[in-house]
Amino acid sequence: MLVHLLLITGARRGEVLGLKWDKVDFEGNRIYICNSVLYSPDIGIYESTPKTERSRRYITLPAETMQLLRRYRAWQAEERMRLGEYHQNQDFVFSQDNGKPMHPDSVTDYLKKFSKRHGLPHINAHAFRHTMASMLYFNGVDSVSISKRLGHAQVSTTANIYAHVMEEADQRNADILSDIFLKKA
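^ thats the sequence. predicted structure below, dont judge the formating
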């Protein structure tokens, strides 16, 4: 579920780990990113606000993702019952067995082990963010919408990071225009 949300939302690793159930809007098919889980050697695992003010955002999710979240929440409730008093519920969508927030590196470690186990190249959590943005560009979504979904402070940040993707997408646009206007049916 966590990897699915990384890909579908384009959210940062800490933002997904900071998501709490009260910020999942099942009626509106969206989540509200307003919390982040971070790690610092001198502090440990802690909660903070997202990277920038514009990083506080609603992200609309597909119906399929909302259904997966419902099933995941039901499974999580069963796990809490099984664990009893050991689990101190802090309302995190993703938590340690005891209910406390997950260490951000646990996501990185999981992806590293998954990649190795399946003979895949190294996968990092941030790659899902780039994949989501690239897929949106290749399907004609504008920079403003993508920037908003990513929570970038400025659209120029998104445009600078994804300039090469935008160029490739524009070549695809030229091919589409050629098919429409210049090639005989």
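The longest strand covers residues 36-40.
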